[in-house]
Q: What sequence folds into this?
């Protein structure tokens, strides 16, 4: 029976015991409201999050003294006095840290009848990715209890149901929070009202003299409402802010949560706003009823999740509980379907933490249980938030990309002041850390991470990606291009004449890495890091293409073309590696986790088979990084999957798929940086997609990095740049059939050794010798390799 169930329901995580720690609980979410379901029997805990619940308030974080030190810093760098320049930046040109994302609280549901739970080990909990429902079934007394929990995107509430067989339900429902709160219960509703801090001290670990500040009228207010509906029995409100249910056969808890957040630059609206939002959502949910809520949730969720399927083959390990299965995999076992499950789990997590109208997925998606989460659980834009969205387009979740674009538009508003105040430049700029309040300034700390005004430029790549995967000139004209242009204007002003007459960035860092100066000191500040120039080259190129597509801004296009021609080229160092900096410095940490200078390989597309010398330099760079321990964090390992896939090295890509799962994955399949960061999940999903399908530089490559362990399989529903849906089946390590569905009319080009047979929707076939064939919008084409007799 288990074998049949796993064949029929491959996309689920399941366990034979409750979660002991947070990283074993199962995540549910709709982008705005999140929950971690522990699956306890006697007293269940669901830890709750709401995507606008952040410490802080709108404030001006610009450093009005920074601009006066820009020229002195540039002069020091041109004189080779890098450590002096770095000290001046650290002393005079940095800012303040972002505020942290906060946990809302916990919902507790306790059996209070004293009966024995989970007798004889009769227990199972699961997360069904296809429905987005977390469930727990366990023996209780003389019967069983089945519990379900989901968060509806369609109706913006969490729904938890208890259904008893053999014993009536006797439950107590309560809620609490790590933040200051008051809980009250009346009739059949529980309400928790709380206050967010105006500031949480950096790196608080419990011993700070004044770790959390609450300033009247500044921090956000929040509210949680829990509505209880039962079949049979009675419900009573206690005097301790809890509800008691007695003698029920079925209990439903409807959960609504909200804050009084208005906008990044507006003061909180007051607790009444949070109450109104909660009450309105709750009233609508009550009107629909539990059955309709469940039906609407499954329909919406499964339609989005079901766009992509992946079959990498089943082994006996697929029939084990997920934690045991992961342990067997760590021990060296083969389990390709676990790798496919990890791919689909990444898609599920993006659906759960980023939906139209919500905040973007942060460092932990939407799930956080700490007042001071690692790195504030913010939007770290020197790799991490970008990696969160790598799978969005290729994995058919383009709608989930939209919150990032909304944030980018707001960030550009703040970033215009930062560009002007900090650097005397046009356009807009953003640095490496962003929070709910859209901080665009350098953070506090050290120049090696804090001073990097390229964060916004990298984020504009996502606008271009969205357009590339689904060409829509209205989106390009109205949303993407204005933001891209604003970023490009900043860099036209930021670039200065450097050595050999090139236009360079000065000062410049390569995110979080340091080099060795001639005097043997560690330093991060110099000029024209490879990543800086790669991103600017890409941004200018995208803007030029947009000008041509939209037939506008011709003078601006010419200015970009002139600047583009003066950017320094990629350089190969004395060890055959791609240089990370303009000069061939030695590295303090040769195995550094960031692969910033390889941006042109991935996610960019400047280093390809058409640049063989640079491809070899990239291979040397990766070899040297790995020999010194590179790829040791979850997200860094995930980036390596994507980079080796771009190199067409399926075996190395798969080696890092294995490493990501075996070394950097919690029992609930959350990425373990360590600690938990969700970017590794998203980067791993994108990397697996990259192994199966690539579509940069105007051509589609089928199975470009297929490893030996995936000899036979199929994938359906992946998206390709140019506006295509791609299905592929393969056997013996080679593709056998491929279906291409076109969104727009034009020419589709497939990279393939030999000729193709292309059959269109009407049944007519042609032999395509160069891989290029005409397509019409809305039509599908079947491709097979042409074998000449």
A:
């Amino acid at each position: 029976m288990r074998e049949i169930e796993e064949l029929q329901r491959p996309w689920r995580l399941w366990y034979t015991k409750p979660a002991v720690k947070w990283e074993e609980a199962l995540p549910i979410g709709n982008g705005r409201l999140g929950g971690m379901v522990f699956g306890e029997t006697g007293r269940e805990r669901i830890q709750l999050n709401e995507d606008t619940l952040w410490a802080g308030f709108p404030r001006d974080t610009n450093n009005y003294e920074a601009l006066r030190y820009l020229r002195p810093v540039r002069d020091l760098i041109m004189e080779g006095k890098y450590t002096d320049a770095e000290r001046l930046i650290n002393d005079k040109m940095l800012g303040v840290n972002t505020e942290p994302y906060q946990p809302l609280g916990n919902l507790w549901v306790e059996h209070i009848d004293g009966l024995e739970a989970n007798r004889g080990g009769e227990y199972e909990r699961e997360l069904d990715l296809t429905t987005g429902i977390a469930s727990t079934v366990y023996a209780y007394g003389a019967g069983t209890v089945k519990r379900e929990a989901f968060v509806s995107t369609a109706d913006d509430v969490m729904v938890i149901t208890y259904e008893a067989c053999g014993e009536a339900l006797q439950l107590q429902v309560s809620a609490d929070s790590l933040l200051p709160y008051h809980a009250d219960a009346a009739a059949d509703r529980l309400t928790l009202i709380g206050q967010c801090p105006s500031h949480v001290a950096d790196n608080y670990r419990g011993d700070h003299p004044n770790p959390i500040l609450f300033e009247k009228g500044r921090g956000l207010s929040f509210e949680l409402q829990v509505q209880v509906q039962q079949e049979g029995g009675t419900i009573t409100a206690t005097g301790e802010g809890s509800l008691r249910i007695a003698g029920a056969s079925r209990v439903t808890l409807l959960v609504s949560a909200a804050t009084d957040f208005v906008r990044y630059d507006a003061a909180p609206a007051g607790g009444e706003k949070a109450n109104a939002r909660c009450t309105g959502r709750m009233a609508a949910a009550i009107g629909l009823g539990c059955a309709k809520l469940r039906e609407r949730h499954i329909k919406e969720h499964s339609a989005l999740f079901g766009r992509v399927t992946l079959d990498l083959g089943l082994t006996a390990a697929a029939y084990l509980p997920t934690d045991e299965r992961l342990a067997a995999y760590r021990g060296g076992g083969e389990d390709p379907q676990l790798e496919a499950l990890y791919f689909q789990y990444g898609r599920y997590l993006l659906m759960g933490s980023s939906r139209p109208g919500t905040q973007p997925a942060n460092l932990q998606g939407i799930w956080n249980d700490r007042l001071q989460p690692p790195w504030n659980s913010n939007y770290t834009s020197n790799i991490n938030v970008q990696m969160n969205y790598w799978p969005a387009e290729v994995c058919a979740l383009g709608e989930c990309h939209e919150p990032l674009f909304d944030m980018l538009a707001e960030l550009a508003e703040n970033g215009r002041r930062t560009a002007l105040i900090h650097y005397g430049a046009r356009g807009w700029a953003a640095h490496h850390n962003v929070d709910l309040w859209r901080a665009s300034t350098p953070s506090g700390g050290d120049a090696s991470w804090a001073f990097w005004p390229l964060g916004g430029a990298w984020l504009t790549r996502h606008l271009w990606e969205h357009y590339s995967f689904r060409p829509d000139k209205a989106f390009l004209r109205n949303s993407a291009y204005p933001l891209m242009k604003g970023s490009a204007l900043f860099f036209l002003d930021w670039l200065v004449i450097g050595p050999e007459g090139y236009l360079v960035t000065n000062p410049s860092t390569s995110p979080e890495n340091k080099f060795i100066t001639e005097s043997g000191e560690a330093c991060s500040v110099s000029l024209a890091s490879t990543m800086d120039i790669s991103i600017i080259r890409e941004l200018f190129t995208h803007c030029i293409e947009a000008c041509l597509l939209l037939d506008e801004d011709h003078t601006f296009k010419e200015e970009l073309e002139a600047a583009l021609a003066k950017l320094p080229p990629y350089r190969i160092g004395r060890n055959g590696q791609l240089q990370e900096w303009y000069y061939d410095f030695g590295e303090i940490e040769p195995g550094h986790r960031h692969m910033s200078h390889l941006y042109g390989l991935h996610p960019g597309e400047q280093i390809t088979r058409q640049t063989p010398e640079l491809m070899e330099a990239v291979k040397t760079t990766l070899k040297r990084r790995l020999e010194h321990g590179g790829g040791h964090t979850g997200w860094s390992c995930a980036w390596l999957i994507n980079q080796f896939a771009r190199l067409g090295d399926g075996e190395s890509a798969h080696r890092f798929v294995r490493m990501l799962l075996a070394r950097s994955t919690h029992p609930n399949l959350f990425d373990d940086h360590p600690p938990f960061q969700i970017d590794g999940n998203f980067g791993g999903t994108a990397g697996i997609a990259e192994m199966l399908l690539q579509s940069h530089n105007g051509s589609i490559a089928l199975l470009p990095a297929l490893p030996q362990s995936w000899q036979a399989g199929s994938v359906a529903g992946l998206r390709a740049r140019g506006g295509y849906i791609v299905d592929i089946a393969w056997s013996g390590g080679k593709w056998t059939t491929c279906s291409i569905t076109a969104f727009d009319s034009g020419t589709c080009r497939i990279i393939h050794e030999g000729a193709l047979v292309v059959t269109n929707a009407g049944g007519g076939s042609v032999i395509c010798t160069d891989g290029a064939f005409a397509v019409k919008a809305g039509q599908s084409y079947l491709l097979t390799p042409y074998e000449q007799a």
